[in-house]
Design brief:
This protein has helices spanning 2-22, 66-72, 87-92, and strands at 82-85, 94-103, 108-117, 125-130, 135-138, 149-157, 163-173, 180-188. By secondary structure, the protein is of the alpha/beta class. A hairpin with a 6-residue loop joins strand 7 (163-173) and strand 8.
Length: 189
């Protein structure tokens, strides 16, 4: 049994990210090179596979005054996983992976990520379809304007689950011919 767990971790850490990176229209943003998952309940760490905005865009050279702080200060960028919707994604579909990492049996974990609209028209997430009742996604039906993004919250309920889990959630956008497929991964102990 222990040998199977070790073998599964080797496959997940080494081969799965390489296979995912080689497939699909979003191949450049696939699983991170180390295969390590983020801690449960926090944003995914910035990696070379998910677009990362490490630079802080706030202006620190000038002192903040009440008149200038709201208007001239730029919002700090999101540093977690960002899934970019392109015209190609809406036409051909796409895939990405959400990693919850290790969870204790019975733990309910929440992970936040962003959907960014890189198309020329607004997009609306109209529905989701999931392979298991243990995952859910909270979203609103408000359009995401071009060059804007929206934060989504995914919940993984590990009650009744054990071992390495790979679930699927399809996101359907208005006007898209194929869904964006998210693979949800967790290791339940």
């Amino acid at each position: 049994m222990q040998t199977l767990r070790i073998l599964r971790r080797i496959l997940v850490a080494g081969l799965l990210p390489a296979l995912l990176a080689a497939c699909g229209p979003n191949a450049s943003r696939r699983a991170n090179a180390t295969g390590k998952a983020p801690a449960a309940g926090i944003d995914a760490p910035a990696t070379d596979t998910a677009r990362s905005n490490e630079a802080d865009t706030t202006d620190t050279d000038t002192p903040e005054t009440p008149a200038t702080n709201a208007a001239s200060r730029k919002k700090a960028p999101h540093k977690g996983l960002i899934i970019v919707l392109t015209d190609s994604t809406l036409v051909h579909g796409g895939t990405d992976t959400i990693r919850f990492g290790r969870l204790g049996s019975g733990e309910i974990a929440v992970l936040r990520f962003r959907i960014e609209n890189a198309t020329a028209k607004p997009v609306v997430l109209i529905s989701t379809q999931r392979s298991c009742g243990c995952i859910s996604l909270s979203h609103d039906a408000q359009p995401i304007a071009p060059a804007q993004s929206r934060t989504l919250e995914m919940t993984f309920d590990s009650r009744g689950e054990f071992g390495w889990q790979l679930k699927r959630m399809d996101l359907f956008f208005a006007g898209a011919t194929r869904p964006l497929r998210l693979f949800v991964e967790a290791d339940i102990e």
